[in-house]
Hints:
The protein is α+β, with helices and mostly antiparallel strands. It is built from 15 helices and 21 strands.
Amino acid sequence: MKNEMKTAVIGAGASGIMAAVTAAKYGAEVTLFESSQRVGKKILATGNGKCNLGNLNFSMEQYYCEDQEKLHKMFRVFSVWDAMAFFESIGLMIKNKNGYLYPYSEQASAVLDVLRMELDRMKVEVITETRIVGAIYHSEKGEFELQDAQGKNYSFSRVVIACGSPASLKKGEGMTGYELSAGFGHDIRPVAPGLVQLESDESFTKALAGVRCQAKVRLLVDGEEMASEAGELQFTEYGISGIPVFQFSRIAGYALKEGRDVSVMADFFPDQEDKVFAYMNRLRYETQMDKTLEEYLTGMLHKKINMVMIKQAGLKPDMKAKEAGYRKIAELMENCRSLNIHISGEHGVENAQVCAGGVNIAQVSTELESSMIKGLYFAGEILDVDGKCGGYNLQWAWTSGYIAGRNAAGSSTREIAETKEDMLPKDDRKC
Ligand SMILES: Cc1cc2nc3c(=O)[nH]c(=O)nc-3n(C[C@H](O)[C@H](O)[C@H](O)COP(=O)(O)OP(=O)(O)OC[C@H]3O[C@@H](n4cnc5c(N)ncnc54)[C@H](O)[C@@H]3O)c2cc1C
């Protein structure tokens, strides 16, 4: 039975679809607008086509948000476990890979398919190829008037803006959500790539293009360590990539914007304890000193890294190790633990997985309702909340979509946010 909350959801990405099915479940009559030909396009690209839809290793440190307390309350309302239960209830089997959650089939399309079926089942009206370009609130009637790019008007009593961010889109695209929000008087925090590759002006990154290796990477801003990550580092023509780089790219980007000096220090022996490493080097020198430097390093790191390290040390590959001498060799080995990669920029919003910035969280309630316009809600990446790699951004899309949708339908989540004990149950439920 409909509760007569005629609700529009603008944007059929992860958060918009979640908002639409939830609002419908709580009795609203829902219309979902999508500017593209198909709903949920970005979902298909997630997790390299496998869709890392959440993570059991959940903590608030995985998120950037200016109001962590408010965010924490929202994750209490709809946690990782709630997301799993939701997906299982609509037919998706979930695979847990060390806490990283994927559809059992490891096909992102499976996630989108079950969501689409749910949109059908909940009788959500889906209108694709329709970009909403104008929105006004008539306070006297308590009614929203939306206008699409063809000039057609629509009326609703509730609106959820879930237009995402420009991440991974062509330059200049993906801004209408911010424009609509700003039109309602909302402050938009500066939008910048959140998870993105970093560009370097070092010539050696070109020589290393294509190399992937395990490394510990430290982000230095004006020489001070700001973050440290470990994992697969990838070298590219323009600089560096890989999950460890993505994780701190946001901090690097903001520092670059402030004109600060940014570099990344790479340790290519991340698992070697210092003393053992020094001892091993001494032994290696004693047994391998008759070899050329190229031969000496062979069998340790990637060949291309070896050559760069020799060059960086001002040595020649055909020089004998014993000619260089132990001290110089020890220095060379130490340099392999601290290669400095100067960072000249971020690799552009069109290559980013998410964007930082967006609708200021201070101007929405824990129910994701605008503090300025009653009946206006937000969900997903359009808000000034972004997470690290690992399923945390989709988790935010499910959580915020659920909250915005349910409240838009008139079912408040305020009490749950205040009283639910925490975001994770204490039992060690497995999946
Ligand atoms: C390559 C890639 C891989 C990723 N992998 C992962 C991953 O594995 N795990 C993870 O957690 N996160 C991942 N992310 C991030 C995650 O996909 C996003 O954070 C999430 O999809 C955001 O959902 P959203 O609904 O807020 O926005 P979007 O998914 O961007 O949806 C917004 C929708 O609104 C539509 N729209 C915009 N403006 C209008 C308008 N005016 N009128 C009508 N429609 C409009 C858009 O066309 C779009 O369909 C990845 C992102 C990318 C790009």
